[in-house]
Structures are given as structure tokens and as C-alpha cells.
Write a structure and sequence with these properties.
Blueprint: H1 2-20, H2 26-41, E1 48-52, E2 60-63, H3 81-93, E3 97-101, H4 112-118, H5 120-131, E4 135-138, H6 145-148, H7 152-160, E5 166-167, E6 169-176, E7 179-186, H8 199-216, H9 232-241, E8 247-251, H10 264-277, H11 281-293, E9 310-312, E10 323-329, E11 332-340, E12 346-355
Parallel strand pairs: 1-6, 2-3, 3-4, 4-5, 7-8, 8-9
Antiparallel strand pairs: 2-10, 6-7, 10-11, 11-12
Length: 363
């Protein structure tokens, strides 16, 4: 019976989830990002930290949207856990600083005691970064508990064995020649009417969607979500970032990876336009073939005038177990994916990369 219902409901449920999961308001998003940025710059450390870094030697990895759950049918992190653990082992052994960018725990659908009981391995892997003082935890909308529950600090200490501060954002700051570059990070739910303190959304997810999803075992986070144009929320985030001087914005929340302000599909169109302009016919044919294999029939977008100012870490809960994240290391910024090979071993792939000094930050 479950398989029959899955065949009937999977597509409409995913379509409904995509439609109801986000309702960003540009005015609210802009105001929220402005206020948080100003608070961090003013030194209000309860909101976030400003961290100077050396782009040539310091290493950062950013993951978001694990949505760690109860290992039941509604747990969209379950299949990705081995990739996540392999990634953390790699980054800890290579002395990366880990920024967890929100929605790490699924606390709309689950009690904190349940999440603690079923995620001891992942919390243990994160603790290794904490022991090195190389960890920052930022809250999102699905783990807002960490910011507003009076017992949050007690539970964090019981999970990690020591006090862990919670922030809404962080700013990394570095000097590249004459340019002072800031990398502003926050989860990205701010200003989303479906997510930002919305009691109805929380009730619907915990009491209606959660049990329904648990029975059908449907994960709406398919890799196909990357083969589209930017969601409205990502577009609004890009527009905000493009108006800031020498500032990158990195968020999560939408589960849609974005690199240099473009999704995977948008990057293909951008490369196709460049190949045609340079008369690289064979490269253009290959890129056109990649686009056509996605079976998408849309008007080719024009990205002239776009700046490389917005990035999105994607998520750690794709339905095939893949996870995506952002690396900042060796003077580069990279979009990476961890996936299973033919023998079910986790492997790291660099999807996109760019030297920080080569980013187009102004027209």
C-alpha cells in the first residue's frame, strides 16, 4: 500500500512542498539582512561575530540544512549521514574551521531529546571542531529553539560537553591587496513569511506534514531542484548582496546551491553564451547538450551585469544522500559535493571554484 501511495502522491507532494516552503518578502528580507549586518558590525556579539582571516592560509567549510531527525520515515538526513560524517572527518583532519549555517537539527518535527538520541555520531564529529575552537553554530528557522528556548544552553552542553554559543550570523573579513573583503553569512530565513517566526508553518510541519512524510517516506529535496533558475528567495538574496561594496553573502535555507550568484543551470547558460561569443563551437555544442539533457524548455536567461556576490551552501539532505557545501581555502571559494561512489564510499567533488581575488564584485 505504501508503494502505491508513494507512486500517486510523490510528485504532487513535492510540488506542494516547493510552493509552500517559501514566501519571501523583499522589503522584509532587505530589512532583516541590514539589521543583522549592522548589529554584527556594531559588536553586538549575541547576534554574531566578526572574524578576521588570512585568505591564503585559513580554511573554512560551511554546511547547512542537515535537518537531523529521528531516523524515521520523515528523517531526510538519514541517507546523507555517512557522507556528512566522512566530510567532517576530512575537514577536521585538515584543520578546517566549521561554520554550521542553520537548520542543523529538525526541531519542528521532533523533540530535542529525540534528535539527541538518534544523532550521537554526528554530534560527536562536530564536537571535534569545538575541541579545537574551530566551530560556529548559527541557527535557522527549523532549529530556532537554540536561540529562544531557556533550556537550549543546557541541552547544548549535554550534547557537546561544554558551552556552545549560538549566533544569527557571522562576518569573515580579509584583506586582498587594496580590497577589504567581507563574507557575511546567515541562515537566510529572515524575511520569509513562511519561515520567519511563523507559528502556522511550524504547526503544519510538525502535526500534518511530518506524520504524512514519515508514512510515505518522501524527501522533496531532489537534485533536480538544482537544474532550475534561482528561487525567488535566492534572487532576492542576490539583489541585496549586489548592492553591497566588496561583500559576499552566503546563506542556506533554500536547499538550492548557488555559486557566484548562479545555480547549476544558470552557470551552464552563462558558459554557453561565453563559448558562443568566443567561437568555441565544440564547447558550445557540449554545453547545449548538457542543458538539453535536463529536458528544460525555457528562454535562455541573460546574466550580463551579474556580480559574483551571492552563494548558497545547498543542503545536507538530498534524497540520494548527496550533500553540498562551501569551502574557503587556499585563496579560493569552492562549491563542493560529497556523494557515494559505486562501492557506496563517500567522495568529495569540486563542482565550482574561483579565486577570491578574481570574483567580480563591481561593474
Amino acid at each position: 500500500m505504501r508503494k502505491f501511495l508513494q507512486s500517486v502522491f510523490t510528485k504532487p507532494v513535492i510540488a506542494l512542498a516547493n510552493r509552500l516552503s517559501s514566501r519571501p518578502d523583499k522589503t522584509r528580507v532587505d530589512a532583516a539582512l541590514n539589521h543583522l549586518y549592522a548589529d554584527i558590525k556594531a559588536g553586538r556579539i549575541k547576534k554574531g561575530l566578526t572574524i578576521p582571516f588570512d585568505a591564503a592560509t585559513d580554511k573554512f567549510v560551511i554546511f547547512s540544512d542537515q535537518h537531523k531527525g529521528a531516523r524515521d520515515g520523515a528523517d531526510i538526513f538519514k541517507k546523507a549521514e555517512p557522507n556528512y560524517l566522512a566530510a567532517l572527518e576530512y575537514y577536521n583532519s585538515n584543520l578546517f574551521f566549521y561554520i554550521s549555517l542553520g537548520d542543523s537539527e529538525e526541531l519542528w518535527e521532533n523533540l530535542i531529546v529525540t534528535v539527541k538520541r538518534h544523532n550521537k555520531a554526528t554530534f560527536g564529529a562536530e564536537k571535534l571542531f569545538i575541541n579545537r575552537q574551530a566551530f560556529i553554530k548559527i541557527y535557522g528557522n527549523h532549529d530556532l529553539y537554540w536561540d529562544n528556548d531557556p533550556l537550549a544552553s543546557v541541552n547544548l552542553q549535554s550534547i557537546y560537553g561544554r558551552e556552545v554559543d549560538i549566533y544569527e550570523g557571522v562576518i569573515l573579513k580579509t584583506q586582498m591587496g587594496d580590497v577589504s573583503l567581507e563574507i557575511y553569512m546567515t541562515h537566510g530565513h529572515q524575511g520569509d513569511l513562511q519561515s520567519d517566526g511563523n507559528w502556522f508553518s511550524k504547526w503544519f510541519v510538525s502535526d500534518i506534514w511530518g506524520p504524512f512524510q514519515a508514512y510515505l517516506r518522501i524527501n522533496p529535496n531532489t537534485p533536480a531542484n538544482n537544474n532550475t533558475l534561482k528561487s525567488d528567495h535566492n534572487r532576492i538574496m542576490y539583489e541585496w548582496s549586489s548592492k553591497r561594496k566588496n561583500t559576499l553573502l552566503i546563506t542556506g535555507h533554500t536547499h538550492q546551491p548557488v555559486f557566484r550568484s548562479l545555480t547549476e543551470l544558470e552557470a551552464l547558460y552563462d558558459k554557453l553564451a561565453a563559448a558562443r561569443a568566443d567561437h568555441k563551437d565544440s564547447e558550445a555544442i557540449e554545453l547545449q547538450d548538457k542543458i538539453e539533457r535536463l529536458h528544460l524548455k525555457i528562454r535562455p536567461p541573460d546574466f550580463k551585469g551579474y556580480l559574483d556576490t551571492y552563494f548558497n551552501s545547498g543542503c545536507c539532505c538530498f534524497d540520494d544522500g548527496d550533500i553540498t557545501g562551501i569551502e574557503i581555502t587556499d585563496g579560493y571559494i569552492r562549491l563542493v559535493k560529497w556523494e557515494y561512489d559505486a562501492e557506496k564510499r563517500s567522495e568529495r567533488l569540486i563542482l565550482e571554484e574561483c579565486r577570491l581575488e578574481d570574483l567580480k564584485l563591481a561593474l
